[in-house]
Design brief:
Length: 245
């Protein structure tokens, strides 16, 4: 909760408005504001107050004010307005915190519907099933004079290489039929793609995005929803750009 530090200011105002009143008080006797400040400091370890402390101090100061120089209406209204603003801000912060918490719980529940579906994963694993072609997508912002695709098995062994000609600017979709360089079908499992592009005399290795199956959903400490992908990779839900049933 926000704290409203007004004690020192209140003491200063009392002294400034009525020096005679202040000088008449022996130094061994504490003013209302000083006593309240010491009590708050002893209780919380720091000089400050919450809503209840503010209201208690405010009413106490009104009861013990200098009868020859009472609090002016303008000051009274200003302090009440400040208290009301503090209370409204605190209530708004609490409501917003509750809303964010409820949304986080709802988000992970909704994300559970993605289990079993395929999502786009940058530099993710590719699942080969029953020889069904696996697609990869590579973004080429400047096009390419030539592109080479390589496929590696789960042990990191190169099993297939394909070379494509010149490509235009944009997304390049590429499909692998699940066979090795000799045309022999490879067993079902998890594979990984690597792309190498040559453009304007420069060689780059753009990221290959593949469609991978979601096997689990979790929530990080910062309330970020994380998807577990078949093959061991994890990605944030916010990074998903495509979902297939």
């Amino acid at each position: 909760m926000a704290n409203l530090n007004m004690l020192n200011a209140a003491t200063a105002v009392t002294s400034a408005t009525n020096p005679t009143w202040s000088s008449a008080v022996p130094s061994s006797i504490k003013t209302t504001a000083q006593a309240a400040n010491d009590a708050l400091t002893a209780k919380s370890g720091q000089s400050g107050m919450g809503q209840k402390d503010f209201l208690t101090l405010f009413t106490t100061q009104l009861k013990n004010q200098d009868p020859l120089d009472p609090v002016k209406n303008e000051a009274f209204v200003a302090q009440l307005a400040q208290f009301s603003q503090l209370e409204a801000t605190t209530g708004m912060a609490s409501s917003l915190e509750n809303f964010v918490s409820s949304q986080s719980g709802q988000q992970i529940t909704t994300s559970a519907n993605l289990i079993g579906k395929k999502v786009s994963v940058a530099d993710g694993p590719a699942q080969l099933t029953a020889g069904t072609p696996v697609e990869g997508i590579v973004n080429l912002p400047t096009g390419a004079d030539g592109v080479q695709f390589q496929v590696f098995d789960d042990k990191g062994i190169l099993v297939n290489t394909q070379v494509l000609g010149a490509q235009t600017v944009g997304d390049l979709k590429w499909a692998w039929n699940g066979a090795d360089d000799a045309g022999n079908p490879l067993p079902d499992g998890v594979y990984k793609f690597k792309a190498t592009a040559v453009s304007q005399g420069k060689t780059t290795t753009p990221t290959v995005s593949t469609m991978a199956s979601v096997v689990g959903v979790s929530q990080a400490a910062d309330k970020t929803v994380v998807l577990q992908i078949l093959g061991g990779k994890t990605i944030k839900l916010a990074d998903v750009t495509r979902i297939d049933g």
